[in-house]
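We now fix the convention by which a protein and its fold are recorded. Here is one such record, which you should read through line by line:

>
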Amino acid sequence: MSHSPLMHATALIADDEPLLAANLQAELIRLWPELRIVASVGDGASALKQGLALQPDVVFLDIRMPGMSGLETAQALAEDWPDTGRPLPLLVFVTAYDEYALHAFERAALDYVLKPVQPERLAKTCERLQTTLQARTQTPSGELAFAPMIDQLRTLFGSGIPAAASASGAPHQAGAGAPAAPLRMIQASAGNTITMVPVSEVLYFEAADKYVRVITAGHEHLIRTSLRELLLQLDPQQFWQIHRGTVVRAEMIASASRDEAGKVTLSLRGHPAKLSVSRLYADQFKGM
């Protein structure tokens, strides 16, 4: 006799404000006693690590956290989720009131709760989660539940929702379209030397801790910026994001090969690098 999935449902909470996280956990326990909170963490990197290790059914993600934002954490979970057949967790974003953010979540059909937690609204969220989890038992493969989540996240990343706040409080918009004046020259410093690298010579960019590696046909440079900041200055028609940590010049892609597991790998023109495409971006490479 099979047990209801709701009796064994698990959840992870990621919020950098301990009091609000504790309040959310207390309300969840009251509204959904069977739900087991397997971890409560305070930053995106920990949420990613615990999420991949514990594979909970539901993840509550604070939008603004130190380091990785809630959106970046969701993207990383989708890209790194193991191929065990277990579906991606249902995502609920926790946010202070932001009209633009809420419209974006509604367009992407992803749920959210506002800070501070409102019990009536959280009760509706719990009902939706329970309905979805129950429906998943009718899905023979976890992979079938993966595609809608990927579509929802892509909608969210392309909606112009603020991914993080700058020191001035102004949002850095992700996926907001082509910049007014795309970057043409990169100044890469090494010691006392600044090398001027034309963007037109760049094959691809790759995130490396607090730096970005700039790869040209014959050289590699490091610049101290985030890939997210750099993306805002690049022409999206010329540079395609293929992974949360990789952006490639489209015209330098020679071929895209897909293995038996569905993983896509790119080969470049005149360069030996092989670049992996995450599942979030794999459908950019479909035969015509």
Summary: Residues 163-176 have pLDDT under 50 and may be disordered.
